[in-house]
Amino acid sequence: MVKKSPLFVHPSAALLLPLALLASPALAQTTNVKEDSVVLQPDKVKDDAPVVETMTQANLPDWSVANAKALLGVVQSVGDEGLFAKDYDPDALQAAIDGGDQDQLDRVATDSFLLLATHLRDGRTPNVARKQWFMTDSDAQTEPLIALLTSALTTNTIPAALAGLDPVHPNFVALKAALKTAKTPADANAIRVNMERWRWMPRDLGDHYVVSNVPEYLTRVIHGGTIIATHKAVVGKPSTPTPQLNPMATGIILNPTWTLPRSIIAEGIGATIANNPARARAQGYTWTGSGKSLSVVQQPGANNALGVMKMEMLNPHAIYLHDTPSKGAFAAAARAFSHGCIRTERALHFSGLMAVYFAGRSPEEFGEAVASGKTTKFTFEQPFPVYVAYWTVVPGAKGGVTKLADIYGRDAPVVASFAKPGRAAAVVISPNPPAVVPTVPVAATPTTQVGKLGNGGIY
C-alpha cells in the first residue's frame, strides 16, 4: 500500500531548537525588499507526441464482452472523476459490444481505455491551458499504459486498473467527494480544475518534501508522510508570478550572499553605487565593474534581502525559498508581494528543520552556524522535491472544501479547455505493416499504413 502524505492536517511533530538560535543577528524591519526576480519562461504549448506501438509489440489479449462492459461502466460514471464521458465515445463502445465483431470491439475498447487512462494519469488539460506549469511528472515511466491494459485484460480488472491511476493524496479524495455535492456549475468547474492539477503532478508526492501552495500563501514541511511545520509565505505579485515547478532541494544556505539580477540593479542600487557608494557599502553591497558590466553582491547581514537562509533548489526560473527582513508582509492576509521567489516566515525554524531533519546536523551545529554570521551550506543527505503548487480549492478546516482567490487568473484557461478536445492518448496502437514487397522503393514515413479511428486512436 502506498503511504499517504496529508497536507492539510495539524502537525504531529515539532522541532525544539536550542537557545543558541537566539544569538542570531537581529533582523532589520525594512520594507520593499527586492529579492531575486523570477526568470519568466515561455509556457509549454505543445503536448507530448503519443508513443506508437504495433499490435505485435503491445501483444494485447482480446477484449471480452465482460471487460468491455466494465470499461463502459467506468466511462459512464467518469463524471465522478471530474472528466466527461463523451470524450471516450460510450455510444461507439456500446455499438461495438452489441455488434459481435471482435476486431471492432478490440479497436474501439482499446482506443477508449488508452484515452481515458491518459486523462486519469496525466490530466485531460492540454499544455496550452496550463499556464506557467513546469512540474515534471514521472507517472508515464512508473505507470506504463500498455502494461496496465494487458494486466487488466488478463485479470479482468478494468475498473480497478483505471481507479489505480488516481492521485493517492487525501486532498484529491476530498475534492472528488466535494464534486458530488457541488451546488453550482461554477463550483463544479473550480473543483475539476484542481483535480486536474493534482493529475499534472506525480501520483505520489513521496514521504519527504516541501510544498508551497501559492494561492494559499502557505509552505508546509512533510517528513515521514506527516506535516511537521506550516509557514506563512509571500509569493510573486501578478506582474512577477511564481511559476509551478518541482525542483529537487539539495541544501540549506545560512547567512547567504545575494547576487543581484540585472533588473534589480537597474531599479536603483546601480544609481546608489554611482552616486553614493558609501551608502551602498553600509547596506552590505560590494561590486565590480560599472555601467552595463556592473556586478553587485550583497553580503550577509541584517539588511540582506535573503535574510538568514536560502533553500538551494536549482531551476531555470531562479525560484527558491528564502528569508526576508521585511517581516511585516507576513501580517497581510493576501501576500503576493515578491518578485517571484517564496519568502518564508519563521525562517530560523524552517531552516532548523532542514538542517536537522534533512541534513543530519544537530540543533547546536545549526545554531552556531547561524550565530556566526558567515555563509554556511548544509547539504541534504538525500535531495527531496519542493512542490511549488497552485491549488485554488483546498480541503476546509472544518470539512468540505474552501475556494481561494485565483491570484494569477490561471483557472479560466483550464475551464475553457473543458469545452474542447482534451489531450490525445499517450499511447496509440497501429497494425503491423502488411508483408508486401513494393515494386518501387519508397521512403518509410511515420504515417505509412496508419489511419485514425475513434477518440484519437491510430490503427
UniProtKB/TrEMBL annotation:
Active site annotation, chain numbering: 322 (proton donor/acceptor), 341 (nucleophile)
Pathway listed: Cell wall biogenesis; peptidoglycan biosynthesis
Assigned protein family: Belongs to the YkuD family.
Xref: Pfam families: Scaffold, YkuD
GO molecular function: carboxypeptidase activity; transferase activity
CDD domains: YkuD_like (cd16913)
Domain named L,D-TPase catalytic: residues: 208-366
Superkingdom to which the source organism belongs: Bacteria
Position of the signal peptide: 1-28
Protein's name according to its UniProt entry: L,D-transpeptidase
Keywords: Cell shape, Cell wall biogenesis/degradation, Peptidoglycan synthesis, Signal, Transferase
